[in-house]
Design a protein that fits this description.
This protein is an alpha/beta fold and about 300 residues long. The chain has one domain (about 15-300): Phenylalanine Hydroxylase, CATH 1.10.800. Helix content is about 55%, strand content about 10%. It has 13 helices and six strands. Strand 5, helix 11 (about 240-245) and strand 6 form a beta-alpha-beta unit. Helix 2 packs parallel to helix 10 and helix 5 packs across helix 7. The protein is globular.
Length: about 300
């Protein structure tokens, strides 16, 4: 099927992405020429909404990252250009994908200092909420934090924990159904940790609470809500709470956890691995998220040494 130049890379409406998925292409090259003027306008509107709120509520390392990446307020980023700024700073790179990346593959990309990055952008009718990632969430929300070496090391360490979970699964001497239940619980615990830190984490900075989580930083309305709302619970992070706390993706978060620094966050990932080794992630509280079959298979079938 031929693709017309500039016909658009709108989330759930892109023929290019549909074709890539049908042919089994997970890792792709960003087809920049396909972005339409409507796509570019969506980026401009989102950026204009977020910029003043970033300046007020975002962690200072995020703001430095936006500057270091030279993100344009007017144009969707070219990932090759982003990587030319990003790699020298932290060794990380944005890796274009055609859609959902199963959990182990996603975490293993982090371990290898690459970040699976969506290339489509949300429809102009869904500026405030999108259930799946888009390039604004991934690049404007996540990637500025990847310019910071300490934060990027946290992601690598998290990928190492996921790798150990896959190795450990292969060593468990139980029947396949029991192993699957354990791995499903492990995935649930790791996904919750990632959600309440990398996606929706808050941090103390010079006596204030600032956002470093990408889910907050890519949403103009939730960013203010997370910092200022009187209807939100904010607690100092505790690993045991985080891994047993379910979450919902289709509404503002009622609960956020606060870390003291990126060194603190790195130590928490170490604690996550110790809990995994001790079997404390093998039967966490039920509830969201649900490990889908692709996530479960990605761990059970992972090629690890």
């Amino acid at each position: 099927m031929s693709i017309a130049i500039g016909q658009g890379l709108t989330t759930t409406k892109s023929a290019f992405i549909e074709n890539a998925q049908k042919s089994g292409e997970l890792y792709i090259k960003q087809p920049y020429e396909l972005y339409s003027e409507a796509n570019q306008e969506t980026w401009r509107v989102l950026y204009a909404r977020l910029k003043p709120k970033w300046e007020k509520y975002a962690n200072s390392k995020f703001l430095e990252g936006v500057e270091n990446l030279m993100l344009s307020p007017d144009l969707i980023p070219n990932l090759d250009e982003i990587n030319s700024f990003l790699k020298p700073l932290s060794g990380f790179s944005a890796k274009a994908v055609s859609g959902y990346v199963p959990a182990y593959l996603f975490f293993d990309c982090l371990r290898n200092r690459s970040f699976p990055t969506t290339v489509t952008i949300r429809d102009s009718d869904a500026l405030d909420y999108l259930p799946e990632p888009d390039i604004f969430h991934d690049v404007a929300g996540h990637v500025p934090m990847h310019t910071d070496r300490k934060f990027s090391d946290v992601l690598v360490r998290f990928g190492e924990v996921a790798q150990f979970a896959a190795v450990r699964a292969k060593s468990i001497s139980k029947d396949k159904s029991e192993v699957a239940k354990i791995v499903e619980s492990n995935i649930k615990a790791m996904a919750r940790f990632f959600w309440f830190t990398v996606e929706f984490g808050l941090m103390r900075e010079k006596g204030e609470i600032k956002a470093y989580g990408s889910g907050i930083l890519s949403s103009a309305s939730e960013l203010q809500h997370a910092i200022e709302s009187q209807n939100v619970q904010r607690f100092d992070i505790q690993l045991e709470w985080v891994i047993n706390q379910h979450f919902e993706i289709d509404k503002f978060q009622p609960l956020y956890f606060i870390v003291d620094s990126f060194d603190h966050l790195f130590g928490l990932v170490d604690g996550l691995e110790m809990a995994l080794r001790a079997g404390k992630l093998d039967n966490v509280c039920p509830g969201e998220p649900v490990a889908n079959p692709a996530d479960l298979a990605s761990f059970l079938d992972a090629k690890v040494e």
